[in-house]
Design a protein that fits this description.
30% of the residues lie in helices and 26% in strands. Strand 11 (357-363), helix 12 (387-412) and strand 12 form a beta-alpha-beta unit. Strands 1, 17, 20, 21, 22, 24 and 25 form a 7-stranded antiparallel sheet that branches. It is an alpha+beta fold and 620 residues long. It contains 15 helices and 25 strands. It starts with a strand and ends with a strand.
């Protein structure tokens, strides 16, 4: 089956101000025939290629018997949905191994790792060593050598590294944001020509998509300012933090409520009006009610702010998943509490891992030391009896704030920079992905769809003073995944990636022709060695389906257009052995302007085998 998808059928993940159009390009039969035994134009329905009076199915039939079995078409076109066989869902674990000097090493093999799920040893079914930032150049060289060409010494001006700077303007203070903006401005001026940077905020205000324009980046930095969702905690009576509110409402800590009640007595003025024992009891009850109300309000506000921040990080992960290259998110934040939202954090980590995104974090507070007797910037003077206890709660909350940033970084292969005022150095370290990292994958045995947390442990067979950084665990899914949806997601994730995969015998070649000084046609040629495919024999035919996707990205890594085809093959032995010795060659063309482009090809078959290749081209 060769399926033509109408415009809009192939889309990148949802994102702000994102549109996608599937290009359509006519292709003459003579040009197609010159490519190979069977050539197929991506963007034109097969029916348009058949001679008048002949059906699309019969146009692809080789000469043969007139029997019903032999007359069945070997390559057909229809719109019936295809069901894929989906492999067992894998749990991905990105691991960074560092030497005593902190340098990432890439010389270890699969046998050097031990992986445990809730202390039970697991079989590492997939293993790879990744060196970020080399995919395009390496793929170009490999393709040139295989085709007998001389590798080019020049690389088209296409990005290889995407860095999203996400500023938590919901939690950051005015004092901290000034230092962060200055450090970020100095850091961004040192980015390389193949880097693309974007600036996002958790409030969603003042965002700037990926660019190499330093003027736009500087202007976006100046727009960053504190944008809390609700009024500042320091103006409350009584003072109530999200952490204290959780201890009061969810954990029923009476000691915390007592401290807040003392604070309420003073800041509300009730203590001074209690001139009799009866009035004192009444004032105490009123102050306790005020503290409980403040706790519920602070809890709702804190949960809302955390949901917004986690949602912002998820949005950036989705946006980054459509960038064809090395991907890093630098989260600049004073930290935030997740408390009962750990399943959402685990889901976020899983999405980042599957999209091959490294999340690093920079503590915007710099060298942070909590106040020993509470926050002196509070509008209401702290109660002297409650202040020491409140300071203890603040210290505990500050530690938990750091924990969530540390967890995000460690679980995705990033770094957590904290306890230092060298914010420029911290941003530089956070933006640098490790020189090497390992991807371990395993299929959990007898996994129950109960949403339970599974703790992961990665060890080295021979530690040799090496340190291991890996995700701490994952949550089991709540329900079994849908096979068709998983297959589509697998293809889409492969398209918006830059990783090379060669499970199928597929080769990518690009060429261009300029019709005018400002117009060009970019052709993508895809050759499939059919005889090296794996076929399933049924009813005397050799059966397999190929889903073929070609996508085009501009010099900033933004998706331009793409085509998706499904080729359904029901080949006779004769056709497979003698009529298709050179395989299939398929072609798609894009109308483009002069510039640098990245072409991404993804091919997946019925059995779940997948190949993905990159092609970069410069059109003068």
């Amino acid at each position: 089956m060769l399926r033509w998808f109408a415009p809009g059928a192939f889309r990148r993940p949802a994102m702000k101000s994102a549109t996608s159009v599937v290009g359509r390009e006519s292709c003459g039969r003579q040009a197609v025939a010159a490519l190979a035994t069977l050539a197929i134009c991506f963007a034109l329905p097969l029916a348009a290629q058949a001679p008048a009076g002949q059906s699309p199915a019969s146009s692809s039939l080789p000469a043969g018997s007139n029997s019903a079995e032999n007359a069945a078409p070997e390559v057909t076109s229809h719109d019936q949905a295809t069901t894929f066989k989906v492999n067992v869902r894998l749990v991905l674990v990105r691991v960074v191994v560092r030497d005593p000097e902190g340098r990432a090493i890439g010389s270890l093999g699969k046998e050097d790792f031990q992986l445990f799920d809730d202390r039970k040893p697991q079989v590492i079914s997939q293993f790879s060593v990744e060196q970020p930032g080399t995919q395009v150049a390496r793929e170009q060289k490999r393709t040139a050598l295989e085709s007998g060409e001389t590798p080019s010494n020049t690389t088209p001006n296409v990005p290889e590294r995407f860095i999203a700077y996400l500023f938590d303007d919901i939690h950051i203070t005015t004092e901290d944001v000034l230092a962060v903006r200055q450090a970020a401005s100095r850091h961004l001026s040192s980015l390389q020509a193949t880097d693309r940077a974007a600036i996002f905020t958790t409030s969603g205000q003042g965002d700037l998509d990926f660019t190499d324009d330093h003027g736009k980046l500087s202007a976006a930095l100046l727009r960053i300012q504190p944008r809390p969702i609700a009024r500042a905690e320091s103006q409350q009576c009584p003072y109530m933090s999200y952490y204290m509110a959780d201890l009061i409402v969810n954990k029923n800590f009476s000691q915390v409520l007592e401290s807040a009640t003392k604070d309420a007595l003073q800041c509300s003025g009730m203590a001074s009006s209690a001139s009799s024992p009866a009035l004192a009891v009444q004032a105490l009850n009123s102050a306790r009610n005020l503290a409980e109300s403040a706790a519920q309000t602070a809890l709702n506000r804190g949960e809302n702010e955390t949901h917004v921040v986690l949602g912002s990080v998820k949005d950036v992960v989705r946006r980054m998943s459509s960038m064809p290259g090395q991907r890093t998110i630098v989260l600049v934040s004073p930290g935030f509490l997740t408390l009962d939202l750990e399943p959402e954090v685990s889901e976020l980590i899983d999405h980042a891992l599957r999209a091959n995104i490294v999340v690093s974090a920079v503590d915007a507070r710099g060298l942070y030391v909590p106040a020993g007797m509470g926050d002196i910037s509070r509008a209401n003077v702290p109660n002297l009896g409650a202040a020491p206890q409140e300071a203890l709660y603040e210290n505990e909350a500050a530690s938990l704030n750091s924990d969530v940033l540390s967890n995000l970084a460690a679980s995705t292969g990033g770094i957590f920079f904290h306890n230092s005022n060298d914010l420029e150095g911290g941003l530089r370290q956070a933006a640098e992905a490790p020189a090497y990292y390992y991807v371990l994958a395993f299929s959990p045995q007898n996994l129950k769809y109960d949403g339970r947390f599974h703790r992961l442990t990665v060890k080295l067979s021979h530690p040799a003073k090496l340190t291991v950084e890996a995700r701490q665990g994952y949550y089991a899914p709540q329900h079994a995944p849908d096979a068709g949806q998983e297959a589509h997601q697998e293809i889409e994730e492969a398209v918006f990636s830059q990783e090379e995969m060669h499970d199928l015998p597929v080769d990518l070649h690009t060429q261009f022709f300029k019709s005018t000084d400002v117009d060009a046609k970019l052709s993508v040629l895809v050759h499939v060695d059919v005889k090296r495919l794996h076929f399933r024999k049924a009813e005397g035919r050799n059966n397999n389906n190929l889903t073929i996707v070609a996508a085009l990205f501009d010099r900033n890594g933004s998706f331009i257009t793409g085509n998706e085809k499904i080729l359904e093959m029901r080949l006779k032995d004769e056709t497979l052995e003698r009529r298709l010795p050179s395989g299939f060659t398929m072609k798609t063309s894009f109308d483009v302007k002069p510039g640098s482009y990245l072409v991404r090809l993804v091919v997946r078959d019925t059995e779940g085998l997948l190949s993905a290749e990159n092609g970069a081209i410069e059109i003068p």
